[in-house]
Design a protein that fits this description.
alpha/beta; four-stranded parallel β-sheet; 4 strands; globular
Amino acid sequence: MPDKQRVLVLCTGNSARSQMAEGILRQDWPGRFDVFSAGTRPTRVRPEAMQVMDEIGIDISSHRSKGLQEFLGQPFDFVITVCDNAKESCPVFPGVIQKFHWSITDPAAVDGSEEERLTAFRSARDEIRRMVRDLSI
């Protein structure tokens, strides 16, 4: 069996969108990809991201926020940016077959009640899942 293709998902903080995309790619394309995520300015995985992923049966509670530097020089088949800032500052990875850019609204930027924040995280999660399901690779 051939090696799995390697996918790197990038955003700014590696706190929500890229973490959710990493979890969804692993769940929806089992056995096909080795999936990693990173941020251009990593922070921490948001508890709201963990909660809304848990709602759909995907556990990202063991994920940690990682910096892009951890992956420089590593080969990737696909790079997916999930925010405009990451797209602009994405370095060149050798051997990348294809780059994808998904402009997903940052749920972590939403202020408001807990329910308003969770609604924003659910919306981002659902948009990412649609993009993953429409992925033609």
